Amino acid sequence: MVTNGTDRLGFLVHDAARLMRRRFEARASGHGLSSAQWRLLVRVVKEEGVAQARLAELLEIEPISVSRLLDRMEGLGWIERRADSSDRRVRMIFPTAKASDAYAQVKSLAGEVYAEALAGLSQEERGILVKGLSTIIENLSDGETSSCPTVKTAESAAS
User: Fold this and answer.
1) Which of 5, 17, 90, 140 has CB atoms 3.0–4.6 Å from 84's, for a disulfide?
2) Keywords on this record (predicted)?
3) Is 78 exposed, middle or buried (0-12, 13-18, 19+ CB in 10 A)?
4) Is the dihedral of CA 138, 69, 41, 91 positive or negative?
5) CB 143, CB 154: distance < 8 Å
6) Does the structure show a pLDDT above 70 at 154?
């Protein structure tokens, strides 16, 4: 059977993500945060005041796991929890100055990793790659809101 390489799509996407994550983690290791903690920190900085339960949804991990991550990060001075003004049972998560500073540094590191990953691709090819991946995400999202701000699902585009 002759294919245009699409039969390897899942492996290619998985391997590309794994290698970028590994390169990023190696560069960001000086801050002492695990991969899961970095993912959480990025969400908290980008969505300041996010509810703890929403973080679990966004990160696709169990609420108890998020709670444990937050306990550790709060103890290390990365985040602070506050009660929601309208519902004291809801815990809102905010980054500390330490987290915001680290995020700025890490954003730069991520940019370096992306540049390395995209080396050898023209600007047009880069645009096509991003558009293609965005389309794949939209096709498979089943109405979910994407975690990527540039990807709009049919449901989120309609609202």
Assistant:
1) 90
2) DNA-binding, Transcription, Transcription regulation
3) buried
4) positive
5) yes
6) no
- CA distance linking residue 126 with residue 124, whole number of Å: 5
pLDDT of residue 6: 85
pTM of the model: 0.70
Calculate the average pLDDT of the chain: 86
Torsion angles phi and psi, residue 108, rounded to 5: -65, -40
Question: Average pLDDT, stretch 113-125?
Answer: 96
Q: What is the CA radius of gyration of the chain?
A: 18
Question: What pLDDT does residue 88 have?
Answer: 82
Which has the closest alpha carbon to 65: 52, 51, 74? 52
Coil, helix or strand at residue 31: helix
**How close are the terminal C-alpha atoms of the chain, in Å?**
43
Helix (H) or strand (E) holding 51: strand 50-51
Contact indicator for 73, 37 with CB cutoff of 8 Å: yes
